[in-house]
């Protein structure tokens, strides 16, 4: 089993994007923030983008809140050799900004006012992942930062943004979209008459299911959006290629628990299928043994003390140690099972801290553990 060298990763000037992915509740947001802080202190111009709606990242970085544009991190005692900015994805705002940037004023006004647009821009399946792709592409194109750290959503959907370009293209090339845009695209009275007749039958059938007003809003939205789709596809394609490039490194984050490591295996296999560059696995909140005393001997010593009627505190400590040894052995077995299935994956272990990370000092401590310091 090889060790994940986080410092070599962030010190390499060719590393431009680090994507942290993993299931929920494994410390992924904290890992991303810790990597970003460490990178900034080692001289990188760094921005961290979180897609997790939790506010922990802002609190740990000393910011009252994170917005949809990067904000410089300025905390007492934080004087990095490089720089650090942070932001949290607002998918509705990102969608609005994209429309304003890539549509003419009249068309943008029509799109932004459309009820169907207001629905999909905030709650439509896949919108968050596509907007994450869009924002990552914007940050990469900006040129202000030489390292972008991305914290992804806390579930398997963390990798759904890899599918966003293909899903978008499939949706836009689908039969319903073509029917919705057909009246606007048809040229010539005869063609329009035929298409309109076909669309009328389609609309009548669908409106009984989804409602006539919703269908009308959807049709108006797609027709107003027509002509912008190609640009969306192209930008998503470029961002997808960025994710596959040698300048990107994926870091999978897990806890030493069966479900989390199963999810980690899924991520590793999916990244391999997509030919995405995997840097390694971070196993958070491990419980290393603090003393070389076998569990059986610790329990035996505790029983002897209790039988002798003395030192109850010492007996309790010995029992706690035995429990810790059993937990550490269980975690080692689980990690060994992962390593057997994925022998080429480098691993970094981060021991559980006594308290939750809520400030810069905590992020630095996690960064030290990631680097094996």
TrEMBL record:
InterPro entries listed in its UniProt record: ArsA/GET3_ATPase-like, ATPase_ArsA/GET3, P-loop_NTPase
One matching Pfam family: ArsA_ATPase
CDD domains from the UniProt entry: ArsA
Entry keywords, A to Z: ATP-binding, Nucleotide-binding
Keyword ATP-binding appears in the UniProt entry: yes
GO molecular function, one term: ATP hydrolysis activity
Residue stretches making up the ArsA/GET3 Anion-transporting ATPase-like domain: 15-287
Protein name: Arsenite efflux ATP-binding protein ArsA
Organism: Actinokineospora cianjurensis
């Amino acid at each position: 089993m090889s060790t994940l060298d986080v410092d070599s990763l962030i010190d390499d000037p060719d590393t431009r994007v680090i994507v942290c992915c993993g299931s929920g509740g494994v410390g992924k947001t904290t890992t991303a923030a810790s990597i970003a802080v460490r990178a900034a202190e080692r001289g990188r111009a760094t921005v961290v983008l979180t897609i997790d709606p939790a506010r922990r990242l802002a609190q740990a970085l000393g910011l009252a809140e994170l917005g949809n544009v990067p904000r410089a991190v300025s905390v007492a005692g934080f004087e990095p050799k490089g720089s650090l900015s942070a932001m949290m994805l607002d998918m509705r705002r990102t969608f609005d900004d994209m429309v304003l940037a890539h549509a003419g004023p009249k068309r943008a006004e029509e799109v932004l006012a459309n009820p169907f647009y207001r629905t999909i821009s905030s709650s439509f399946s896949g919108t968050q992942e596509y907007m994450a792709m869009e924002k990552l592409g914007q940050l990469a194109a900006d040129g202000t930062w030489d390292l972008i750290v991305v914290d992804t959503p806390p579930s398997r959907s963390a990798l759904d943004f890899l599918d966003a370009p293909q899903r978008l293209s499939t949706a836009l090339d689908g039969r319903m979209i073509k029917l919705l845009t057909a009246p606007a695209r048809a040229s010539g009275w005869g063609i329009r008459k035929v298409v309109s007749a076909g669309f009328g039958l389609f609309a009548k059938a669908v409106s009984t299911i989804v409602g006539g007003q919703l269908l009308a809003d959807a049709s108006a939205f797609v027709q107003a959006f027509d002509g912008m789709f190609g640009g969306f596809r192209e930008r998503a394609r470029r961002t997808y290629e960025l994710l596959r490039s040698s300048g990107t490194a994926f870091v999978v984050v897990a806890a030493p628990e069966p479900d989390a490591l199963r999810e980690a295996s899924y991520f590793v296999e999916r990244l391999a299928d997509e030919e995405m560059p995997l840097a390694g696995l971070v196993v958070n909140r491990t419980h290393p043994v603090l003393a070389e005393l076998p569990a059986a001997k610790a329990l035996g010593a505790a029983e002897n003390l209790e039988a002798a009627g003395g030192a109850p505190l010492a007996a309790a400590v010995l029992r706690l140690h035995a429990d810790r040894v059993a937990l550490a052995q269980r975690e080692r077995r689980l990690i060994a099972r992962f390593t057997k299935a994925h022998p080429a994956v480098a691993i970094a272990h981060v021991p559980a801290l006594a308290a939750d990370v809520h400030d810069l000092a905590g992020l630095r401590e996690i960064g030290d553990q990631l680097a094996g310091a």
